[in-house]
Amino acid sequence: MQSEESRPISSEISGEKLPYPASQADMALQPDTDLSSYLPAGKLSGKVALVTGGDSGIGRAVALAFAMEGAEVAIFYNENEEDANTTRTMVEAQGQRCLAIKGDVRHSEDCRHAIERTVVELGGLNILVNNAAYQMAQKKFEDISEEQFRRTLETNIFGYFYMAQAALPYLSAEDAIINTGSIVGLVGNEMLIDYCASKGAIHAFTKALALNLADRKIRVNAIAPGPVWTPNIPATMPIEEVENFGHEVALGRPGQPEELAPAYVFLASKDSSFITGSIIEVTGGKLSSG
Question: pTM of the full predicted structure?
């Protein structure tokens, strides 16, 4: 387990480069996802949650935090089976059941299967976390291929749409949908144009869906992370960007996945009962105003 003092800051991150999709297990500098300093309070006791992209990074930390708060958890992942199995083991170590479901959020039938399996095997569904994402940095706009553009949009917004539609028949009053947006969906990033567009769409989707589901008392919110050290970074960013990752925020370092997880717990629990249609920025001081 890494201590608070061992969290990587920008000066400690080397120019590590990994092939996409990167496995968290292969990262030289491991993200903090074990929640070793987290103090649970039973906020999600008796709940069932499904987290897409739950095999590593933010998704793993969220799945673990939910389990520590008393929820049964399903994770939906695409390729990295080793990471998914690690997450499942970590959740089960908290005394909670965990399903690891392989599939692709770009395919609506996979999304329906993930929801239905969760409901059947864990007994219901109360919390959907749309977190799966794809990005690939390109320094020149014209280098963004049509294939990349489609993959980015289909993963990051089509997948959220499919999952929410599949989940809705099983959600009831006081249940929650939480979407992972991004600060770059608010301020932009010159190397992630298609990704920024998809994250902006997620923010708008969150607000509109919250209005649509308000009469059913189902809350819909989003987290907008700033720079967070996850497997996506060494797999999708140029080496020089990896070396300087997180330098632009007020705290001068990237966040750790476990520093995001409490915000998801808040939005999943009754503590946020009067919050819907909101985008909560967890950015280390990179504000949406610039």
Answer: 0.89
